[in-house]
Design brief:
- Helix 3 (55-72) runs antiparallel to helix 4.
- It is elongated, with a radius of gyration of 25 Å.
- It is mainly α.
- The longest helix is centred in the first third of the chain and has 19 residues, at 7-25.
- Helices cover 70% and strands 2% of the residues.
């Protein structure tokens, strides 16, 4: 119901390659490839999920695109509904939660954005970008200790994430921890000496 099968076409193509093309390479035994071709054909035909396109993923993507269209015209409620439909279709996919978190953040719904980013992290804990985005929301909310923890987790996953080092320095500065702030800003320069974009308190 949810899959578009392309296996039969690939099976015929594999059989053609093995029966028609490979024998030309081996002129001594033109029929030597018949058994391997039959084996590959049977293997592919017994794997119905192989090379299949997940229709639920396509529908989920459509809901995400529709959500951003609603968001662009200020219809936040409808945008969030579309994102929730995308998440319901693929509960194991972090992407709908990431997009919904961004819409929640843009509309000032910071607690909901934090919840969505945490949902995405529960699915994909090794994604440094999600940790970084969560830290930004926490920083927006004024929870600097929590933001610092998330920035550091993002850096642990991606030590060269310059934005995380930069914003970590800002969070430390807001906590009046100037020593660590200087250390973070210095790391930014070490990663990229040409980097001149240092976030200020107002950002």
């Amino acid at each position: 119901r949810y899959r578009i099968q392309i296996v039969p076409v690939l099976s015929l193509f594999a059989a053609y390659v093995l029966l028609e093309i490979f024998p030309r390479v081996s002129a001594r035994s033109p029929r030597a490839w018949f058994a391997p071709a039959l084996f590959v054909l049977m293997l592919v035909m017994t794997r119905p999920g192989l090379f299949a396109i997940d229709e639920q993923h396509l529908v989920s993507r459509e809901h995400i695109h529709e959500a951003w269209r609603w968001s662009a015209i200020g219809e936040t409620g409808r945008a969030l509904e579309e994102m929730s439909r995308a998440a319901a279709l693929r509960p194991g996919d972090p992407e709908p939660y990431i997009h919904r978190a961004a819409i929640n953040r843009d509309s000032g719904r910071l607690p909901q954005a934090v919840d969505d980013y945490n949902s995405a992290i529960a699915i994909d804990p090794g994604n440094p970008s999600v940790r970084y985005n969560l830290a930004q929301v926490l920083q927006d909310a004024g929870d600097y200790p929590a933001a610092i923890r998330e920035y550091r987790k993002a850096i642990d996953l991606d030590p060269l994430m310059i934005e995380a080092h930069n914003n970590l320095g800002v969070a430390y500065r807001m906590m009046k921890d100037y020593e660590n702030a200087v250390r973070s800003f210095t790391k930014v320069i070490e990663i990229d000496p040409r980097h001149i974009y240092l976030v200020t308190d107002d950002e």
